[in-house]
Amino acid sequence: MRVVSGIQPTGNLHLGNYLGAIKQWVAMQDAMAAGDDCLFFLADLHALTVAIDPRELASNTIEMAAALVASGIDPDRAILFNQARVPAHSELTWILNGTARIGWLNRMTQFKDKAGKNRESASIGLYAYPVLMAADVLVYNASHVPVGDDQKQHLELARDIATKFNTDFGSDVFVLPEPLVSKAAPRVMSLRDGTAKMSKSDPSDASRINLTDSDDAIAQKLKKAKSDADVLPDTAAGLADRPEARNLVTIYAALAGTSVDAVLADHAGKGFGAFKPALADVAVATLGPIRERMTALLDDRAAMGAILEKGAAKARTLAAPTLRAAQDAVGLQV
Ligand code: TYM
Predict the structure, then answer these.
(1) Closest by alpha carbon to 48, among 89, 79, 96, 20?
(2) Which residue spans of the chain are classified as CATH 1.10.240.10?
(3) Of 43, 191, 294, 331, which residue is least crowded by CB atoms under 10 Å?
(4) What separation, in Å, do the N-terminal and C-terminal C-alpha atoms of the chain show?
(5) What is the mean pLDDT of residues 210-221?
(6) Please, where in the chain does CATH 3.40.50.620 lie?
């Protein structure tokens, strides 16, 4: 098993990242058998597809790495690195640009969402981004890619690119990666709007819980989270047309490591005035210690940088044979 996944080092790690992706990363790392590899990276090249401040990018990368370690990623067992330090990602991207079709990229919903109405002035990088993401996983022959629901379409594209490449060049260079979408929290929604994804790019900080938020801020944000006036039902089916209620109960269940039905069995008949403080307690109990570990790790940023450099050296070794095989397959042997 080779597990590969990444996260963009833009802004803070939020609860959607944590429940949708990072918790799965840690679980897979902890379940790793001899001969398996887990590679987790900060997708700093992806961050270049939107406006960035160079100083912020460098410090966000270190901070995000600390957040991952604080969340349970163990750099002695998993390979933790930043994408820019493994040039094979970029080199393979260019080769795959010859295989990916414009029609396929035109279907990517994330580009449409991120570019909005102003498509003509979006960067080429924002458009071509899913090809880099395909290279990220294909270069390691990833078998499993734990992600939130919003990245599934990109991984289907990676599989299409791998299949076409293998067919066009009569080769079996690439393994088809399997997306693993969290069952507990595939899509954590905004605290202000139960129909919009919780996201780093939402202008309202109240829409998300950041892993850097104080216990007080977490409790305040959950207290003010949009909900409704009904009491909680006794089955998950009763949440069907209540997006905000469903989101808050799902967050509770994912944080507590239990099911939505189990949460409802305990809280059916209660209104949000009673449920929200209970949710805040669970959230603070999980996120408070992560924040504290992260703060301690950031006392020594150089040590975090050294962890990333060590991880990059291992990743470069693992990426080299696949890049070479892809170069050979297309005739770049000389
Ligand atoms: P990014 O940085 O937006 O998010 C990192 C991970 O968090 C998940 N996620 C969510 N899950 C549930 N609910 C949410 N509200 C939520 N918001 C984010 C994402 O699905 C993701 O798993 N393109 C990727 C980074 C990337 C990558 C890769 C991932 C680059 N190369 C290769 C996997 C494999 C991204 O922008 O994720």
Answers:
(1) 89
(2) 205-296
(3) 331
(4) 32
(5) 97
(6) 2-186+301-330
Q: Which of 2, 4, 7, 90 to mutate to test the pocket of ligand 1 (most atoms within 8 A of CB)?
A: 7
The CA 311 to ligand 1 mean position distance, Å, reads 20
Helix/strand/coil for 199: coil
Q: How far apart are CA 155 and CA 282, in angstroms?
A: 32
Q: CA nearest 225: which of 244, 242, 210?
A: 244
> How far is CA 3 from its chain centroid?
13
Check if 276 is active-site: no
CB atoms within 10 A of CB 32: 14
| CB of 12 shorter than 6 A to ligand 1 | no
Q: Which of 2, 3, 5, 17 to mutate to test the pocket of ligand 1 (most atoms within 8 A of CB)?
A: 17
* 36-53 exposure pattern, b = at least 16 Cβ within 10 A, e = fewer: ebbbbbbbbbbbbbeeee
Residue whose CA lies nearest to ligand 1 atom number 33: 5
Residue 323: which of 166, 161, 135 has the closest Cα?
A: 135
- Does the domain at 2-186+301-330 match CATH 3.40.718.10? Answer given as no
Q: Which CATH class is domain 205-296?
A: mainly alpha
Tokens of 205: 């900080």
Segment 134-173, tens digit of pLDDT: 999 999 999 999 999 999 999 999 999 999 999 999 999 9
Residues 242, 230: contact at Cβ < 8 Å?
Answer: yes
Average pLDDT over the chain, rounded to an integer: 96
Give the single-character DSSP code of 302. H
Q: Is residue 112 annotated as a catalytic residue, yes or no? A: no
Q: Taking the CA atoms of the chain, what radius of gyration do you get in angstroms?
A: 21
> Given this model, what pLDDT does residue 51 score?
86
pTM over 0.90: yes
Adjacency order of strands within the sheet including 2-7: 79-82, 37-42, 2-7, 144-147, 178-181
Write b or e for each residue in 198-220: b if 16 or more Cβ atoms lie within 10 A of its Cβ, otherwise e. bbeebeeeebbbbbbbeeeebbe
φ, ψ for residue 10, nearest 5 deg: -115, 125
